[in-house]
Each structure stands twice: as C-alpha cells, then as structure tokens.
Amino acid sequence: MEHSGHHVTGMTNQIVWGTPHIFAIFLIVAASGALNVASIGTVFGKPVYKPLGRLSGLLAIALLAGGLVVLVLDLGRPDRLIVAMTHYNFKSIFAWNIFLYVGFLVVVAAYLWLQMERRMNRHAKTAGMVAFLWRLILTTGTGCIFGFLIAREAYDSAIMAPLFIAMSFSFGLAVYILVLLASYHGSEREIGAVVVHKLGRLLGVFVAAVLYFTAIQHLTNLYAAEHIGVERFILLDGGIYTALFWIGQVLAGGLVPLWLVFRPAASESRLASSRVVLASTL
C-alpha cells in the first residue's frame, strides 16, 4: 500500500473504505460493545455479571488497540503517525475521534483497575458510569464518520449514530461470548447455564435493535427522492450486493441468530451453549 496506493485495498471513487478500514471499524465498534458486561454488572447493579466484568474491560482495550493498529496503515508510513498526533483539523470528525479513542483506553484502564483493587471497589460504579457514557460518545463519533458523508447517498443519514451504537452492543457482546466460552473450555472449567442463557438473550435483543435501525434507515431513505437510486441498488438491483444484504446481513446476521437464541428448546445447557456460540459467530 505504501508503494501502490490505497487502491490495492479495494478503494475506488465509489468505494470509500478499503479492506483495512473494514477491520478497523469493526474492531473499534466491537471494543465499545465488549464493555457491556462490565457496565451491566457495576452500573446497573446486576451481581451475576460482576465476576465477568474484568474480562469485559480487558477485551475492550484489546479490541480498540487492534483497531487502531489497523487504522495506522491508512497513514502509509510509520513516521506520519507523529504528524497525525501533533496536527489536528478540528473541523474533521477524525480529529475528535483520536481524543475519544485515547480517552476510552484511559477510562477503561482506570475502570479495570478499580474493579481489581478491592480497596477501590467503591469507586468502580462511578468509573463504570463514565466509561458507559464515554463509549456511547465514541460510537456516536464513529457512526458520524459515515453519517457526515453527504456526498454518499448510502451513508448520508443521522440514523448512522444510533445504528452504530446498536451494532457495537451486538458485535462486542458476540465477541465477548466467544472469548468467554473459549477461555472456559480451554481451562476445562464449567460456566453456568444461567449465565449463557442470559448472555444469549441479551445478544438477541441487540441483534433485534440492529435490524430495527437498519429497517428505519432504509425506509427513511426510500422516502427521500435523492436516495431512491441507491436504495434500489442495495435492495433490488445490486446483484451480489443485494444478495449480501438480504442473505448475509438480514438472514444470516439477524434472523438466524434471533431464532437460535430465542427458541424455547435453547434452555437446555449444552444445546444452549452451542446455539449461543453459533449465534455469536453469525
């Protein structure tokens, strides 16, 4: 990419995000949502989630760090990182996001320390509230990167901010469930069926929220005359892109996970775990 330019990642005048951007945005958005379990345990006072909160914070930091490392590839050369860290264009949402990303790492690290240090546990709820609000602002900023692209009819929408928040909850919790169950399996420990069941149901709620905001986004765009062309392309005439939307995002990424986690038979322990794992993977 340093020698040939960004077109090697799939970027063109029509496609504004290449392959590295896809991974970077996914990891950054998932990092915000990975903190769900810690927030539920401390901020909302659910004791069953408190023992799982430390892994939640650690995973959030790891995912965000991974996303930022991928995003650095966009600079082309390592020495340009110094320029990016010392020169800011505050008219750009990217400049504001730098502060949000670094602040998120600091806030979550402090939150994680307060959870692990027993003498400071009394301050964990306050730190958890700050982390909860910070990650909402962070994900809103990431969604606004797309929502502010007024020259791209497919992105130009204020609904991008809440859509990204819903997706962060969904992606982050899915990654957390996979890491949690893999760690328990690798260490040959048993995790309670109640915890798996609760996490699976919570994941289903977030997946339903993503489908809801996606439907609202497309219905709103269909109402505006300038967006009818791009909506027709995505929903009807886009060929492989239409198939990816309906079969990939809506069916495999939405309806199938909902069916897996909300089936009545999913309450059986081993079967529940396998279905939650499959739903999280999708």
- Using the coordinates above, name the CATH class of the largest domain: Mainly Alpha
Given the helix and strand composition, which structural class is it? mainly alpha
The stretches of 5 or more residues where confidence is low (pLDDT under 50) are none
Which value, in Å, is the CA radius of gyration?
20 Å
Mean pLDDT: 82
Number of strands: 0
The H/E string reads HHHHHHHHHHH
Per DSSP, the total helix count is 11
Strand portion: under 5%
Q: What CATH architecture label of the largest domain applies?
A: Up-down Bundle
**CATH superfamily assignment of the largest domain?**
Formate dehydrogenase/DMSO reductase domain
* Helix content percent band: over 70%
Q: Which topology of the largest domain does CATH recognise?
A: Formate dehydrogenase/DMSO reductase fold
Shape: globular
- Give the total of domains: 2
Could you describe the largest sheet, including whether it forms a barrel? none
Q: Span from first to last CA?
A: 30 Å
Explain what the structure shows:
The protein has helices at 19-34, 36-42, 53-72, 80-86, 93-116, 124-147, 160-186, 193-223, 228-237, 240-262, 269-281. It has eleven helices and no strands. With 282 residues, it is mainly alpha-helical.
